[in-house]
Amino acid sequence: MAQQVCAGAMMTCSFGVAPSALMVIPKGMPVMAGGPLAATIMDFAPIANIPPFSMCTTPSNPMVAAATAAAFGVLTPMPCIPVTPGPWIVGAPTVLINNFPALSSTSKCMCVWGGVIQFTYPGQVTVQVP
Question: What is the pTM of this model?
């Protein structure tokens, strides 16, 4: 079951070496999801919304390719700088936040270097009081 994603949601990149937390910048009227700001598919800006995942390991990244070539073919990770040119894919089409689909825990964002960014934790919890 997909959940609404909000600020602080944990993400991983298929070529990153560490997780990162989604940053949500309020646009229009701020909408909260159980406390933190709710995210939309338009929260895809590199660095501003999607911070680096520590180091990048894909040879399609020019920095990694150059470092690997300098190391005589030994894969050499380099600092991650996400390049996400388009919005998250498949948000919640029936839930709009400031006219954009809400970001769902099953949404994915593609990096130009071939990485797939996805959520491991949506950023909010449900507490049941006895």
Answer: 0.90
